[in-house]
């Protein structure tokens, strides 16, 4: 085997290896490529995920709105309770004063 034959055989072997590698790559790509039905399923799942995220965001917004409403109602109720307690305290003081006044008037007789 002379030098020219060796170079030719080496070139043919390298070309054959390149062709086999390219065919293997093409075959792997062809077999792992998603099908149309798979892509349709992925699109449907992406749409459902998007709708679920929108529903979650709407639920969070509604929850925050209700929480703010309940917090304001609670604050109002606490203010009303405080006003009622102050009124009751004043009424008790007034009742005690009236009792003392009545007892004083009855004691003079």
TrEMBL record:
<keyword id="KW-1133">Transmembrane helix</keyword>
<keyword id="KW-0175">Coiled coil</keyword>
<keyword id="KW-0472">Membrane</keyword>
<protein>
    <recommendedName>
        <fullName>Tropomyosin</fullName>
    </recommendedName>
</protein>
<feature type="transmembrane region" description="Helical">
    <location>
        <begin position="6"/>
        <end position="28"/>
    </location>
</feature>
<keyword id="KW-0812">Transmembrane</keyword>
<feature type="coiled-coil region">
    <location>
        <begin position="42"/>
        <end position="80"/>
    </location>
</feature>
